[in-house]
Amino acid sequence: MTSLDTTAVPPTVLARPAGTAGTLDARAVSAWFGDRKVLEQVSLLMPAGQVTALIGPSGCGKSTFLRILNRMHELIPGATLAGEVLLDGADIYAPERRLTAARRDIGMVFQKPNPFPAMSIYDNVVAGLKLTGVRASRPEKDQLVEECLTKAGLWREVQDRLRQPGGALSGGQQQRLCIARSLAVRPKILLMDEPCSALDPTSTRRIEQTVRELVHEVTIVIVTHNMQQAQRVSDQCAFFLAEQGTPGAIVEHGPTEAMFSTPVDQRTSDYVNGRF
Ligand code: ADP
Ligand code: MG
């Protein structure tokens, strides 16, 4: 297991401009929990500036795949993997590559909004800086907080109460706060694991809108069970399936429009049309 380290970081967070979306390339990724194989040879290119949606039934390995993309999988006891994950051509698992760097480049938003509830809205946004070893001055932080909350679509609602606790916000606001927190370290990739599953339709739409606005500066990989959402937000889709007793694998992937209008595989057609 690799421990978090804080060396070799940029001098300040603003040294890295926003708007540097990256390309993720997963090559022949397999994963195990103990002896049990849960992903089989998953290869997927997630191009810079696009939203990739991962769809498929529960238990087919979508969350496991996302965790592999930012090195969270290796933190689970008994979890192992094979294959490569390249970020702009560099293997994020290369021995010389620091876990902190992977974390800074590749952010994650989860199904259940998880701001630090007792921490202020302001401190929530900048919390990731310290965790990933990025230094920022007070004026830089002020600028970042406004910038990231604006991008997450939350600034206007909270600008007068930045010192209130994150836990006092509504569920949808909390999720947008989590997005702002992810953006503060200037990631190249944002991974989102069913980010709207716990939210009401209005909050869901706002997150979807934010996703489309953000993709110009950060590449997004989103897991969703909502087929309309996949169609609304994604440029390409990958359909995962774990057929009886077999590990999860990608059945089909391609441009979203084509996946929904002319799926090649019958199983994809059945799934996107709600037949299982
Ligand atoms: P999905 O996100 O598509 O619902 P997951 O990636 O969560 O699927 O799970 C894939 C498979 O791996 C499932 O069979 C699940 O039970 C198993 N699994 C997930 N997390 C763990 C874990 N921490 N320990 C053991 N098995 C796990
Ligand atoms: Mg999942």
UniProtKB/TrEMBL annotation:
Any single biological process term in GO: phosphate ion transmembrane transport
Keywords: ATP-binding, Nucleotide-binding, Translocase, Transport
CC per GO annotation: membrane
ABC transporter domain sequence ranges: 24-272
Gene that encodes the chain: pstB
Family annotation (CDD domains): ABC_PstB_phosphate_transporter (cd03260)
GO molecular function term, any single one: ATP hydrolysis activity
Name listed for the protein in its UniProt record: Phosphate import ATP-binding protein PstB
Record bears the keyword NADP: no
Organismal lineage: Bacteria, Bacillati, Actinomycetota, Actinomycetes, Kitasatosporales
